[in-house]
Amino acid sequence: MNKFVLVTGGAGYIGSHTVIALQQQGYTPVIADDFRNANQIVLEGLRSILGNEPLLHRIDICEDQALTRLFDQYQFEGVIHFAAYKAVGESVEKPLDYYQNNLVGLINVLRHLSTHHVKNFVFSSSCTVYGEPKGEKEVSETTPKQLPESPYGYTKWMGEQIIADFHRSTPQHKLMNLRYFNPVGAHPSARIGEFPIGKPNNLLPFVTQTAIGKYPHLTIFGADYPTRDGSCIRDYIHVQDLAEAHVAALNFLINQEDGLLEAVNIGTGRGTSVLEIVAAFERVTGHSLPYIIGPRRQGDVIEIYANATKGEQLLGWKSRLNIEDALKDAWAWEQYLATL
Ligand code: WQD
Fold it and tell me: In this structure, how many other beta carbons lie within 10 angstroms of the beta carbon of residue 21?
C-alpha cells in the first residue's frame, strides 16, 4: 500500500534531499515541480540514488487546475511544501514575482488540503521570521517574530500567518512550520546538491565555486561586526539533517489524533562565523580559499542560531552532521559538477 506524499518543489535543493529521505523511510514521494528553479542534473541524481524513476509531475502549483488533477490522482498522506522563490536579494528587485509565486502557490495547496481531505502539512519556513535577535542570539520558537527585511522574508512571515488563519478556520488539519536556519552541503553520493542558477546568493555555493576557480576570490561582506571574529554568525545545517527533519515532522503529524499547528526550529544549535567557514573549508578540503573583506551587505543579520530543543523533544529529531561534513559534501558536489 503506497503512502503517497506530495513534495512541491521536490526537484529543488532541499526538496530533492527530502524525496530521498521519504523513500528511505517507506513513503512514496510524488514530486510537483515546474523546474523553473531546478535542474535536470538533479533528476539524474535522484534516479541514481533512489534506484528508480521518481514520480514526477511538471506542473506550476500556481495553476489551480493542474493541482486539482494531481490531488484527484493520489490520496496523499501529507504534503511537504517547498515550492517557492528564495533569494533574498532577488526578492528586493522582483517583489511582485515573490508575493505572487510564494503566496498564491501556498494558498492553492492549502485549499486542496481541504477539498481533498489531506490532513498533514509541512511548510518550508525560515529563521528569517525572527529578523535580528534583539537580546539572546540563540532563538527559540517562542522568540518574538519581527517584521522581515526583505520581500522573501515577508513571504515566509505572511505564509505562517496564512497557515495560522487556515488552522483557525479548519482546526482538523495538522500543520507544521519548519523554520530552517542556513541549509548547506549536499548528498554524500555527490549526485545531488545545491544548484544555484546563475550567480549564487548564498555563502556556500560562493565558497565552492571560488575554490573550483569560477571566481578569483570570495568577498566576505563585512568583518567589523560585534561578533567573536568580526564576521556574521549563522547556524549552518546539513541538508541531509534538514531532509530527515521533514520526515520526522511528517511522522509526528501522522501519529497525532487531533488537528494542531506547531513551529519548529531546524538548526544545529551552534553558530559559525563566515571566517570560521573559510578556515574550516581549507582545513577539510586542503584547498585554499582566496577572499577579500568587502563592505557589509544590507539587511544582513549579525548573529543568529537555533535553540533546537523543541525539535528533539517533539519530533525526536536532532542534527547528526556538522559543518565539516557539510563542507566536504558541498566540495565533492562542486567537483562532480565540474566533470559535466
Ligand atoms: C550567510 C552569511 C553573508 C555570501 C539567507 C536567507 C535564509 C535562507 C538562507 C533560504 C552572511 C555572508 C554570503 C558571500 C558573504 N534562505 N556572505 N559572502 O543571508 O544568512 O540567509 O539564505 O532558505 O532565509 O535569509 O545566507 O548564505 O546569503 O549569508 O560574506 O558571497 O554569509 O553576509 O553573513 P543568509 P547567506
Answer: 20
Cα distance between residue 26 and residue 136, in whole Å: 40
* Pair 265, 307: CB distance under 8 Å: yes
d(CA 147, CA 162): 15
Specify whether 152 is catalytic.
yes
CA angle 324, 330, 331 (to 5 degrees): 90
Phi-psi region of 301 (alpha: psi -120 to 50; beta: other; left: phi over 0): beta
Work out the percent of the chain whose per-residue pLDDT is above 70. Answer: 100
Give CA separation, 283 vs 188, 190, 279, 286, 320, in Å: 19, 20, 6, 5, 20
Q: Which long-range contacts (CB under 8 A, 24 or more apart) does 105-109 make?
A: 105/8, 105/61, 105/62, 105/81, 106/81, 106/159, 106/162, 106/163, 107/162, 108/61, 108/62, 108/64, 108/67, 109/8, 109/61, 109/67, 109/79, 109/81
- The set of residues, in sequence order, having a beta carbon less than 8 Å from that of 279 and lying 6+ positions away, is none
The continuous run of DSSP H or E covering 179 comes out as strand 174-180
> 246-304: per-residue pLDDT in tens?
999 999 999 999 999 999 999 999 999 999 999 999 999 999 999 999 999 988 999 99
Measured in Å, residue 56 CA sits from the centre of ligand 1 at 30
Cβ < 6 Å from ligand 1: which residues?
A: 86, 88, 126, 128, 180, 182-183, 201-203, 206, 218-221, 232, 234, 274, 297, 300
H or E segment and range at residue 122: strand 120-126
Is the pTM here over 0.90, yes or no? Answer: yes
Q: Is 117 left (phi over 0), alpha (psi -120 to 50) or beta?
A: left
| CB neighbour list of residue 224: distance below 8 Å, 6 or more residues apart | 230, 296
Domain 4-184+237-267 has CATH 3.40.50.720: yes
- Spatial contact of 46 and 7, defined as CB atoms under 8 Å apart: no
Residue of 203, 215, 238 to mutate, ligand 1, most atoms within 8 A of C-beta: 203
What nine digits make up the cell of 286? 586542503
| Domain parsing of the chain, residue ranges | 4-184+237-267
